[in-house]
């Protein structure tokens, strides 16, 4: 099957075409600055195009993708009817969606009801869905949710210590995010280590601009460091992560700020950016600045590593043990110094890192040494492939029925 994977954001739309049998990526690309000045990147095995292209809206972006995919010179398809399924990344499925689904009018309605829960992401995802449905009305569309994998969390993990009625009335609870990545990476870790996923306890550290940690026990998520929104948990690029709400009331009073201004500070001005006194939200830049003795840059990275280690420790307790700790995403895959720093806190778990292996690059690699009681791995996440797999599975079920 040929799967078109779509990840639609407010002004960008990333896409890949994946052959589900071979799992080969036939094309990858992105439509950027939609509704602004427009940009288009398109890469196949032999072609690499980067151009400015006016893209008035998401429909124009999808149209551009479909025309290029079927173009005589650049295309990889004869007609877009060769696309068996479109797999859409959808951020928030609330409690309604525990797995991937065929996108129907009812699903769109149910997702729209979740818009309040993810006002930045869900409407942008739906615009991409809508554009595809208009241009490819006959093609099967499957929605793959970032929250779905985390839906196995039990109430003891997902409920806040708030009055229960707010959960009943508004579904205020912890949802957890990055589920597509956590699912892919935890499964790939078990496959790489030749373990039965149903018998292993894995902690996945998805460390990028946005970061979350996920405890996966016997194939099911039991906890995730992100909460009601992707703001909870670790200190991130620009997001604060956990903060005592009491400090926010104090700040609001002292600086005369309303709740929206406070939220902007927490989402956009905090994290390692805020700690480093606005130097950078980028971990690589902070590392370079730290080498030149910028104290706040080093402190920001130190706080980040400390917090990651604390979450790993608490998830090891939550699962009563851990077999695999896996690092993934931009920072997790590339920043060997941060990995080393985090693992130094974890010697009590019997973790020992092989310093040479820790500096190697691979799609999947074990960086713990032979004496380590826990496997420490670095695995490149592949959310598009996970979406393609789930979309193909849904399509195969429909064909069978
Ligand atoms: P997003 O959450 O936007 O998907 P990514 O997973 O792409 O983020 O991660 C981006 C982060 O990864 C940036 O802070 C960047 O500095 C960091 N990063 C990427 N490559 C390296 C590297 N070689 N060393 C250290 N950090 C890196």
Instruction: Give the end-to-end Cα distance, rounded to a whole number of Å.
Output: 17 Å
Outline the biggest β-sheet. 8 strands, mixed
Mean pLDDT: 96
- Cα gyration radius (Å): 22 Å
CATH topology call of the largest domain: Nucleotidyltransferase, domain 5
> Count of helical segments?
15
Number of individual domains: 2
Keywords:
401 residues; alpha/beta; Nucleotidyltransferase, domain 5; 2 domains; six-stranded mixed sheet; 15 helices; 14 strands; 19% strand; globular; binds adenosine-5'-diphosphate
Overview of this protein structure:
It is a single chain. The protein has 401 residues and is α/β, with parallel strands linked by helices. It has two domains: 2-145, 2-Layer Sandwich (Nucleotidyltransferase, domain 5); 196-383, Nucleotidyltransferase, domain 5 (2-Layer Sandwich). It has 15 helices and 14 strands. It has helices at residues 58-69, 105-113, 122-135, 155-158, 164-170, 179-192, 245-255, 259-268, 271-275, 283-291, 295-318, 329-334, 336-344, 355-358, 383-400, and strands spanning 2-8, 13-19, 25-32, 39-43, 48-52, 85-90, 101-102, 140-145, 201-207, 211-217, 220-224, 324-328, 364-366, 375-379. A hairpin with a 5-residue loop joins strand 2 and strand 3.
